[in-house]
Design brief:
heterodimer, A: about 425 residues, B: about 240 residues, alpha/beta, Rossmann fold, 10 strands, transport (chain B), ATP hydrolysis activity (chain B), ABC_transporter-like_CS (chain B)
Chain lengths: ~425, ~240
Amino acid sequence: MFSYYLRLALLSIKRNPILSSLMVAAIALGIGASMTTITVNYLMSADPIPHKSDELFYVQVDSWDPNDPYDEPNEPPDQLTWTDANNLMNARKATRQVAMASSGAVIEPHGQDSKPFNAGIRLTFADFFPMFDVPFLYGSGWSESQDLAREQIVVLSRETNERVFGGENSVGRSIRIGGNQFTVVGVLNHWQPVPKFYDVTTGAFNETEDLFMPFLLKEELELPNGGNTNCWKSPEGDSFKAFLQSECVNYQMWVELPTERDKQDYLAFLNSYADDQKALGRFPRPLNNRLSNVMQWMEIQEVVADDARIMLWLSFMFLLVCLLNTIGLLLSKFSGKAAEIGLRRAVGASKGDLFMQHLVETACIGIAGGIAGLGLAMLGLLGIGSLYGDFAENLTSLDLTMVAVALLLALVSSIAAGLYPTWRACNIAPASQLKSQ
Amino acid sequence: MLKMNNVTKVFRTDLVETHALRDFNLHVQEGDFVAVTGPSGSGKTTFLNIAGLLETFNGGQYHLDGLDVSNLSDKERSRIRNEKIGFIFQGFNLIPDLNLFDNVDVPLRYRGFRSAERKRRIEQSLEMVGLASRMKHLPSQLSGGQQQRVAIARALAGEPRFLLADEPTGNLDSKMAHSVMDLLKDINARGTTIVMVTHDPLLAKQARRNIFVRDGKVSELHEVSAFAEDETAASKVANSKQ
């Protein structure tokens, strides 16, 4: 019977093209608005590294002001000091560990025609690449010994490699960065985790950096701080070294802890480390060290903006308004079919048969509305992309899951909207319709 | 075939209570052809709707083909309508955007027949009413008489034992009305029981029996003399069924 109902649905839609188009348009508008905000929220709240997000932990130790917490009610700082980052790295207590920071420098390409340009730098350790499953196009990351030897080596993003070396395999070639010569050891393939979980302090949806180089080069080359630097007391001196040794926080740290036992051990280590620091006159606040896995850290950092949540609810209300309009249009359409419904009842259709027939018709309208709504959602995402620029660039694409969600939402919404009109249609008294035709 | 005992039907609104049928009694034998006449508002159509299970009643008893239909569910009533009853309406009630084939197909779809069986029945029914060559036409491409023939084909396709006709010639000119009436008599002669509501006394006389309804009651019930000429097929059929 389904194919019969489908044929009747298409006939009925063709019979009232204007009314049908209005219903499709109403559903399309609601779905378009909803899918635009759902997509943004979905991408904002997505797990960027699902296969190991519960094994990677962001490290927080409370090195802050004894009189004021870093954040109310009693939050530890969201970054580490240079001293703590290095101490925790040297302890090597986790399966893998990386401290990191952002910085920037000017790249001077070889060719005379090529102009120098500013590049974002991620200073990090060798474990960064295997820990976060970073894909390589050419070469690889560097080794722990190269970290310690503070070698001037660099991994380029694919875009930077295209810009500087025309996309060729540049491994082994040299590149001038911030006035210093570096050797390229690897070139990344496209890599854009959404959110950019490994450092959300500089923007959870920013592009990944142009260059990756050993963390300790910051001290060696006196590279500037990038991102947010927060201090609760002033550095003791004006030198770069004094600034590094201050209580200012600017460094992020992640550890890989495959088991719950590993996590407990590492937390115990952090508390022990904090006690040691207290003995040295640091860490004046009570013990307040934290380990947060990827999704917990995204939640703490409020990666999904409140604005986006509000927009999501507003769009659902708009969808509801569109569905209320659809209900009105369906009532009008089905009341126009009263004579046919009466006849079908007379010749043996049960209420259930007619309910299914009209639900299939409503579903067809819903699917058409969903497809049109997808088009509107794409336009909406383009609009958000052009309105918010780089911030939203990685949040404005519809993947297959979102397409399926859009169609499912349209189907469920239209069926929900069609229930009352369909129920009314099925309860038309056939006798009154048969005589009056 | 149809047995109504003291059937009553009351339509109620907030202000008014209308007694459409009062102690309505009627027995229709298998193979009979009954014409129901009476003034407007006398309850003819209400009787027909109750007989066709399109409406429920408030009191009394109604047995259709030996089955008490007083307390059947909607689904059971639909099934009986589909399997045992055929309807013919004054306004033809064809679905305008379905061609003749698909119009006749409507009741068969709810019967659950396979495609080949439906096709056979549709072609046979349209053949019987003389419209087999026009099965791809839309109703709007036919005359009123032809449309009523399609409606009759639709009513017959399910091979019902009981045909209910409400003013089947009311929208037709006299020539077409006679043609449709001849068709109904032919169908009755093949054994289908027919109950027909009509205003036209000349048409009523062509049935085997006439009942006259007034104020929701059967006030007269008599055999039609002209009917005796063609040796009651009804009694023949009734006898053969026994």
